[in-house]
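User: Before I run my own analysis I want an independent prediction to cross-check against. Here's the chain; please return only the structure tokens and, at the end, one sentence I can use as a sanity check.
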Amino acid sequence: MAKKPKKQSGGTPATVALTAAGTPFTLRPYDHDPASTSYGEEAAEALGVSPDRVFKTLVADVDGELTVAVVPVAGSLDLKALASAVGGKRATMADPAAAERTTGYVRGGISPLGQRKRLRTVLDASARTHTTICVSAGRRGLQVELAAPDLAELTGAVFAEIGRGHL
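Assistant: Structure tokens:
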């Protein structure tokens, strides 16, 4: 029988989902600078983690359907590759207000976990090269570290080469 992780503080829908699923994870809080606009890079630097292991959660519109892309903060999202990964033709970045409304999180704190409405999710294939990765835990200044296969299982994500400019 798998040992359940101890309940960790944090109180976000993402941490609640992880705890409820019994998925092992580590909360990684840091002091968020309100003047920072590059949330993922700020997290990597504050936590002392390689930007290839810290992943940002982006919401895109693929043929009229909101889709989550999880890519390393060290690079950027390849919108054509994202569209292709989900069988779509065209992808654009989603309107920030629509992304916040649909996920229930604020920009810079959108987590792939515990979203208000579960969106199809694509995780960059580079995540498989790391034992663990960090993603937003649902608010600025809080990351969660977990195994990429666990993240994929909990979000129903597929792995695909959707990032560019990293590694």
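Sanity check: The chain is about 25% helix and 30% strand.
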